[in-house]
Amino acid sequence: MAPMTAQRRVVLASQSPARLGLLRQAGLAPEVIVSGVDEDALTAPSPAELALVLAEAKADAVAVRPEAADALVIGCDSVLELDGQALGKPADAEDATARWKSMRGRSGVLQTGHCVIDTATGERASATASTVVRFGEPTDAEIAAYVASGEPLYVAGAFTLDGRSAPFVDSIEGDHGNVIGLSLPLLRRLLAALGVSITDLWA
User: Fold this and answer.
1) For residue 144, what are the contacts with CB-CB under 8 A and spacing of at least 6?
2) Which of 38, 60, 70, 77 is catalytic?
């Protein structure tokens, strides 16, 4: 019998419970190391590029830490592109309310940057996944109730598919997981580019 190779450690450079949940559902058992990157300090020419710059910054910040040695570090960041603008987490309840009033009945593009760094080799692979989101038309009262729940203050674009705003999203075109925070099909391709099969990372 061939000797068993030690399973690679996977580190998620994000405090997002949604991303952690997606990875666990896909059979992985990532450790979480929060990057501490100041997202507001970074800029890029387009929302898709901004999502990628943020994801790379998170992965880079964690990859250099001693506790990430010999691990596969995954960095992700999402923004909602609406009218060419990149919308991250809303500043406050007032901002979240204004956003929902501007989004209802329209479509936006959820852009999620992904960066995987193999700290054993220094190699990296990164890309952005895009998913079209068609918003429904919640009433002012429904928007007020949703904002009062506090949920939209913690998510890019002030909405999420795995929470209370799901009834306010009529449809999506593309990867469902990408809207929640991480595209598993894209992650599989990025890992493959680094010579790693996602099935080898199953816990």
Assistant:
1) 97
2) 77
